[in-house]
Amino acid sequence: MLKYNENMIDVSEQDINYLNTSVKEINTHVGYDFISLKSTPQAEDECVDIYEDGLETWTSYTFEQAEMYLKGIKKGFELEEKKSN
After folding, report:
1. What domain of life does the UniProt record list for this protein's source (predicted)?
2. How far apart, in Å, are the Cα atoms of 84 and each of 8, 64, 79, 80?
3. How far apart are CA 23 and CA 48, in angstroms?
4. At what angle do helices 13-21 and 63-84 cross, to 10 degrees?
5. pLDDT of 20-74, one tens digit each?
6. How many structural domains does the chain have?
7. Is residue 52 part of a domain?
8. Residue 23: which domain range?
């Protein structure tokens, strides 16, 4: 399951593999943004759907893309944190 600590998302290969096992939905926060992930691995194009409140839309990613995307969010959030300090 995706872990979060003090508004920072921690995404690992294990988290993506967890999504890969069956239909699941995971909700967490990154900063002030609410992130929802929903996987449908039995679909023809195995994917992770990611919903961002800020965009108010679902976007489908492959598991590899989702992992890179979420790690990018975490890095961006960490950079924002450093700027504000």
Report:
1. Bacteria
2. 15, 31, 9, 6
3. 10
4. 140
5. 555 455 555 555 555 666 655 555 556 777 776 666 677 777 777 777 777 776 6
6. 1
7. yes
8. 3-80
